[in-house]
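Suppose you are handed a protein chain with no further information: no name, no annotation, nothing but its sequence. What can you learn? This example shows the usual starting point.
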Amino acid sequence: MSLAIDILSGLGDKSPAAIVVTANGRRLLLDAGGALHPGDPTTWARGLAVDAVIISHDHIDHIGGVSELDPETPLYCTPLVASALPKGRAWQPLPERGTCWIEGIPVTTGQAGHSLGGVWIHLGVEGGIFYSGDACLESRLFPFDVPPSARIALLDASYGTYDQPQQACVDAISEHLNRPLVFPVPESGRALEMALWLASEADARGLSIAVDPSIRANLKTLLELPATLRRPGADEAIAALLAREDAATPSLRLISDRDDTAAQWPGYQLLHTGYLTPSRCAELAADKILWQRWNVHLRASHLVALADQVGACQVVPLFTSLAEPGLSAWRALLGPRLHALPTLHTALHPTFHLEAWSPA
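A reasonable first move is to predict its three-dimensional structure. Written in structure tokens, the prediction is:
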């Protein structure tokens, strides 16, 4: 018996997520990411044949390539993520937290702390394979579930070796709230927790605020889910925000990101809090926009702590540059556990068995 992991996309730079795990004679695709930049092709999917697809969450670089796959291939995702699939695409439910069997392989999921309906994925083979998808331990709204042990960890390293705590990010954004601002954000991710924070700041500072209907709808959806799928203490703040009306001419606007440019928002300054496309990098260089990160991915110390927690012997940092000096920095952080190649093949012990794990 043998196991193979082939990282088709997502290793060595910020790129779409697509990882094939071959185990027990079956091929599972973890995520099916689409291009981050408009017009870029999704090349990893060409000619690909797999037995099943498992989607971690609904952001474009993890789900945008589904349309490139054989529509007859079974696809698994949480019900909330299913709404982002191409119209008419068949899917099967993945638990928000729990264990199911896919192609004879035990698949455990847990909350990843990153987005509405998003989960991490654990495959119960070869001592455990843990794939974080996009994950964060610092969300004020989305919980992060402790995963089971895993010999191999494929971890979100979108921030590289950056390690600034979330509170420092929030403090830095606070310094800009004395001017009219527009915040373009992914409507199922940081948008939800930023909405609660901005509403609180607006009240404290006597500012007016407006929140996009799509973000309000996602907050309503979150509030209707079981309480264990959000951080304790958030319900009152969510209900209060949903009850308040948007200001007609707000000082602060939280909008669903639709590739907005500075020219589209006269009288406002755009403040971005996540990944910048090349065109936005150009706007930032020209002082047309502002940028300050709001943590929604694993920072370096948290990535190492997560690798330690699952007991990983091999760790693959995903979605980040592995060119020097970054590669040397990862070696210093992870030591001999670092695996920086797109393939990983191991021999399985024929009598090995991993019992299915379920979170408390």
